[in-house]
Design brief:
transmembrane, transmembrane helix, 0% strand, 93 residues, 2 helices, mainly alpha
Length: 93
């Protein structure tokens, strides 16, 4: 059954926090996988070796940037989100 008074949408700040967290975790996971592949890579191809050595560090840098953005969003919107929940509780929804 569907409840028509239910508001199941999140605040834009919460969506941004979730998106940045997911993107950062994907970048970190990919960089760990690529570093592992690079550690077992025994091929003689120079270009693949260069890509496997620099690309994980770029991914780690991007992951840390997204982690920083997430922390900034959490810090700047935390009080606003709490006040939204308090106002919602006071109106009886």
């Amino acid at each position: 059954t569907s409840i028509e008074s239910c508001q199941c949408d999140f605040l834009p700040s919460t969506k941004g926090i979730a998106a940045c967290t997911i993107i950062a975790s994907i970048f970190l996971g990919l960089s760990i996988i690529l570093l592992f592949i690079h550690s077992i890579n025994i091929s003689e191809n120079y270009s693949i070796g260069v890509c496997l050595s620099f690309f994980p560090f770029i991914l780690i840098l991007l992951a840390f940037i997204f982690i920083l953005i997430t922390l900034i969003l959490v810090g700047s919107y935390l009080s606003r989100d709490i006040m939204y929940v308090v106002r919602l509780a006071n109106t009886g929804m």
